[in-house]
């Protein structure tokens, strides 16, 4: 407490005493023995009121005991059940929950993981893929400021993601691995990764890269066979030994029929092999007969052009040609879409030919754009000419309905460079992104789509897309999301399909280990997105004739249905808008892909390295009690007594207010009782 506050309190006590003495001894007409009590009450009341005015602060210290956190992460993937350890994993979880010693020593949280990580409520062992690295990184982030050991109950078999044995070298958490799987090594042949393009062109050959591995102690020989529709397309003999444990096989296969084609790859089994499930794999391709050709026309050398080319060609159905404005004239009929980057007066012939041919266009503007020229050659937007430049941020418009756009985190993307000036729109346009200056969202569009007079146009009013692609990679550790965003813009702009009230977005085939999701958009008679519609889907298995029916769920500016529970096979479907007489039909294929059944043993080597590098220990699942005892007796994980010190102003002490009220009431009652006014 400060010295000045102490002097104020002393002064308040003297003043309160003076008031009490003055009223009950100096000024009082009746001096009785009760005056001392009255004076004491008045002194306490006045002193309390003065203390509230001074409002001194005091320190309040509370003590509490904090137990260390313990995270128990349980593998919920199908490989646990395939290896026959599902029952023992459930028993181990029960032991952790019922251990009184563990409950007293730790603040325990249970998690389950497969494709994602979430709190553990129940175990189904139905996850189709496993990402152990993602689970461990999630726990590392959650407990980054704590000493929190992690118990990883898993077989160590990961189907996608980074190698978890090398991703947590600097973690503070010790990881104790409880192995759910056989540690005995058997002779085993296995088909690993299959690399193949999603699309191929009719009457061409497409490459397939196959990884095959052998785990064993003998020299063996096996037959690799690739077949489709009961026809063998390729056969090859592979030889393995303890010194030759892996092979990479490259094959060219013919694309003879348009549509989705399924292929099967098989390795003939050996006598001592225990698990033959991982000797077989399926894949599919879609054979197409044409490619979307995109011309990017620019008078500038800019990193955006390379980014656009890379993103567009990430879809193998697209081909990009870079042209100067002078080179484009007379050639534009060879392209389905013309992308013009920061047009100026040199683009005059290009615009004339686009208008003559009725071509769709995609225009990207920036600080080098000649807006006097651009305002004169197209009528969809006009921009005020000021000669000044500005940086603009992006805000996603949730009412955009021309096609589905996922939120890539646009609000966190770097700004784009633009010419300063108000934008005027002519006719009906659909705004996907609005401009934002600092924290102020404007009505000016940043990205818009237009469908007028049978021609589609996309306008991006800012340059610097290369920064967006780089930021997307930093956020997602992949270019895929940004490239898909650009691909949807190109797909919309390149299409000459008339707008429909019911649009269905789906893939021709899906792999059984991934999500099977279909998206829809429904519009009213004015082609405005209608969020009140009831959309239903009827799916029929072409082989078994089994019917699955379910409604779509509203998701932002579209509808979504998840069909991941369907078995592998070929399906036809019909989407119907209830009470509207509108429907759309299609078909898709789910390719069999049981990646979780490819494993024969637990991955002891990676689990041991993970435990060793994090200063933890590896245990067999039968040693659960030993793990519990080691955690409880480890001196690194002891409850810690902590103190919490708060500086509290006296006015927050409610008991003082209550005491003042009581003192005043008591003094008033005693004075009235004794006949004093």
Automatic annotation (TrEMBL):
SUPFAM superfamilies: vWA-like. It comes from Dokdonia sinensis. Keywords: Membrane, Transmembrane, Transmembrane helix. The chain crosses the membrane at residues 6-25, 37-54. The lineage of its organism: Bacteria, Pseudomonadati, Bacteroidota, Flavobacteriia, Flavobacteriales. The keyword Membrane applies. Coiled coil: none annotated. InterPro entries: vWFA_dom_sf. This is VWA domain-containing protein.
């Amino acid at each position: 407490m400060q010295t000045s506050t102490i002097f104020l309190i002393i002064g308040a006590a003297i003043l309160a005493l003076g008031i009490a003495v003055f009223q009950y001894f100096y000024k009082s007409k009746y001096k009785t023995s009760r005056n001392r009590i009255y004076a004491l009450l008045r002194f306490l009341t006045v002193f309390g009121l003065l203390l509230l005015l001074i409002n001194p602060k005091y320190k309040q210290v509370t003590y509490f005991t904090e137990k260390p956190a313990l995270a128990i992460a349980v593998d919920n993937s199908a490989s646990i059940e395939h290896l026959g350890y599902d029952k023992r994993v459930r028993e181990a979880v029960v032991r952790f929950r019922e251990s009184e010693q563990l409950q007293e020593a730790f603040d325990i949280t249970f998690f389950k993981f497969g494709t994602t990580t979430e709190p553990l409520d129940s175990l189904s062992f139905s996850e189709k893929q496993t990402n152990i690295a993602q689970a461990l990184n999630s726990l590392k982030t959650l407990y980054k400021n704590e000493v929190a050991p992690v118990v990883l109950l898993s077989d160590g078999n990961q189907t996608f993601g980074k190698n978890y044995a090398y991703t947590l070298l600097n973690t503070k958490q010790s990881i104790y691995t409880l192995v759910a799987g056989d540690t005995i090594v058997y002779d085993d042949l296995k088909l690993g990764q299959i690399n193949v393009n999603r699309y191929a062109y009719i009457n061409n050959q497409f490459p397939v890269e196959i990884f095959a591995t052998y785990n064993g102690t003998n020299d063996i020989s096996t037959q690799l066979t690739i077949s489709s529709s009961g026809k063998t397309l390729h056969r090859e003999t592979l030889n393995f030994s303890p010194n030759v444990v892996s092979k990479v096989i490259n094959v060219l296969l013919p694309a003879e029929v348009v549509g989705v084609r399924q292929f099967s790859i098989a390795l003939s089994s050996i006598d001592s092999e225990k698990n033959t499930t991982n000797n077989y794999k399926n894949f599919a391709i879609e054979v197409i007969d044409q490619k979307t050709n995109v011309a990017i026309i620019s008078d500038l050398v800019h990193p955006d052009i390379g980014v656009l080319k890379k993103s567009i060609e990430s879809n193998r159905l697209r081909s990009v040609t870079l042209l100067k404005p002078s080179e484009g004239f007379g050639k534009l009929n060879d392209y389905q879409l013309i992308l013009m980057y920061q047009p100026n007066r040199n683009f005059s012939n290009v615009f004339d030919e686009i208008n003559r041919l009725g071509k769709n266009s995609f225009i990207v503007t920036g600080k080098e754009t000649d807006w006097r020229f651009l305002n004169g050659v197209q009528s969809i937007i006009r921009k005020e000419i000021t000669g000044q430049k500005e940086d603009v941020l992006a805000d996603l418009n949730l009412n955009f309905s021309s096609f589905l756009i996922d939120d890539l985190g646009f609000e966190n993307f770097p700004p784009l460079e633009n010419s300063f000036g108000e934008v005027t729109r002519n006719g009906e346009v659909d705004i996907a992104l609005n401009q934002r200056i600092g924290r102020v969202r404007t009505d000016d569009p940043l990205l818009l789509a237009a469908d007028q007079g049978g021609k589609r146009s996309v306008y991006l009013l800012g340059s610097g897309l290369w920064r967006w692609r780089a930021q997307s990679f930093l956020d997602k550790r992949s270019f895929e999301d940004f490239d898909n965003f650009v691909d949807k813009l190109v797909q919309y702009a390149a299409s000459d399909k008339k707008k429909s009230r019911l649009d269905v977005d789906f893939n021709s085939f899906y792999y059984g280990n991934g999500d099977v999701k279909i998206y829809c958009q429904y519009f009213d008679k004015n082609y405005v997105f209608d969020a009140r519609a009831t959309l239903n889907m009827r799916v029929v298995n072409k082989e078994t004739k089994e019917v699955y029916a379910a409604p779509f769920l509203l998701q932002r500016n579209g509808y979504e249905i998840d069909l991941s529970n369907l078995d592998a096979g070929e399906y036809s479907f019909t989407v119907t808008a209830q009470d509207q007489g509108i429907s759309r039909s299609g078909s898709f294929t789910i390719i069999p892909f049981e990646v979780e059944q490819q494993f024969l043993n637990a991955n002891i080597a990676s689990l041991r390295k993970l435990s060793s590098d994090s200063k933890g220990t590896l245990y067999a699942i039968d040693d659960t009690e030993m793990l519990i005892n080691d955690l409880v007796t480890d001196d690194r994980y002891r409850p810690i007594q902590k103190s919490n010190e708060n500086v509290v102003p006296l006015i927050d002490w409610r008991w003082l207010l209550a005491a003042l009220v009581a003192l005043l009431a008591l003094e008033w009652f005693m004075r009235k009782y004794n006949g004093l006014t």
